[in-house]
Write a structure and sequence with these properties.
Layout: H1 2-8, H2 14-27, H3 35-51, H4 55-72, H5 75-91, H6 95-105, H7 113-129, H8 133-149, H9 157-169, H10 173-185, H11 195-208, H12 212-232, H13 234-260
Helix pairs in contact: 1-2, 2-3, 2-13, 3-4, 4-5, 5-6, 6-7, 7-8, 7-9, 8-9, 9-10, 9-11, 10-11, 11-12
Amino acid sequence: YQGIVRYRMQITDSTAYLPLKNAASIFATIVPADLRNQYLCLYYVGKIHEKNRNYLLSKNYFRKSVEVAKLIQDTAYLYSGYSDIFWMNLNQSNMDEAKKYLDTISKFLLPYDEYQISFRNMQSVYFERTGQCEKSLYLERQIMQLKSKHGYENGLLVNYYNIAKSYNKLNQLDSAIRYALLCIQSIRDTSNFVNHYYYLNTAEIAEQLNMWEHSSTAYKRAYETLKNNIDKDLNTKVLEIENKYNLAEAENRSEEHTSEL
C-alpha cells in the first residue's frame, strides 16, 4: 500500500515504483493467490510507467492487470484496466485498437455518473480524433451537465480543451478560441506535462485568428512546460529500475533451473 499511497500523492518516481514492484513479486508466489493485491500492484506499476512516459511497458502492465481482473470477475477492475489500454492505443494513434477497447469497455459500464462521465469522455475524444466532431461536442455538453449536477465546475479544463479542438476542426474559430482560453485559465497544477498541449492548442487557434499576443504568450508557456518536464527526466530512472528487475528475475530463474539439474 506504500506505493499506492505515494502514487495517489502524485509521487511517480522510484520511491513509489519499488514498493509496488517488490509487492508484485511477493504476491505472485503466494498460495492461494491473492488476486486483488496482484491486480493492484500490476495496475499501479502500469500507471507509474504511464506517468513516466514508458508507454509500451505501461500497456503491458495494464494487460496483465486485466488478465487478473478476469479471474476475480471484478467489473470495476476490468473497466479501469480496459480504459487505460484504450487511452494508450488512442495516444499512439492505434485507432482500430482503440475502437475495439471502447466497445469492450461499454460491457463493463457501471450505473453511476462517474462512470458515465468517464466513458463519455473516452467516446468524445475518440470521435474528435476520428473527425466526428459534432458527436464529440454533443457528448461534451452531456459531460458538463453531469459535472454541474455534482458540483464539478472546477474540473471542466479537459472539456474546454476537447470542445476547442472540435470547434477548430469544424473551422468555427471564434468558438474554438473561447474554449481554448477557458481551458488555460482553468489550469491549477502548473507543473503538469499535459499543460503543454493546452497551451499549444490555444497558441495555434490564436495564430489562425491573428491574435498575435495571445498566440505568442501561449507558445512561450507551451515551450516552458515542455522544457521543465524534459529536464525532470524521470522516465529514464524508472525504466532503468525496471530493466534491472527483469535482469535479476531472469538470473534467479536461471539459478533455479541450474539447481534442478
